[in-house]
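Bench notes, afternoon.
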Amino acid sequence: MPDNSNLDVSMRIQEKFEFYFLSLTFIILGLSIQTSKFGTHAISDGLELLGWIFLFISGMAGLSRMRWAPSLYRVKHEIIKRERYRDEAKRRESNGETDVIQGEKEIPIGDFIGDVSQGVKEVEDQMSKLETKNDLKYWLHVYGFTFGLLFLMGSRGYEPAVRFVSWLVK
């Protein structure tokens, strides 16, 4: 069996990063809410609110990804399990066996292989849908975080930038 230690390390690092990134999203959102000051400039107020909205969307998308991650792994496990059944049946067929016992009845091995192959395809279709949703949530998380930070930076930096430009113009 091949050494999977590098794969295990990379998976642990990825898990830690995902939890850190999700935590960071909510920490920044919470701190920005606690330290906000409204009423100075309408533009900075709007940017602040946009930052909160984007960070909130980012955090909720990240939470949803975490919630659905186990389902992705369960479905992938089911695909692998069914592929093993199919491959074992194909090996037995190539060794000359003509029937398999499924439940309490004997069925032709070709029918069994066809049924299992169809089952694999159905579960792969399900997996594809879950992965598409997961990818969307990932991009919402990443870009929501990025834009949320940019809007907060714009909000917090707007007043100092206006003062600086006024000072330069004098």
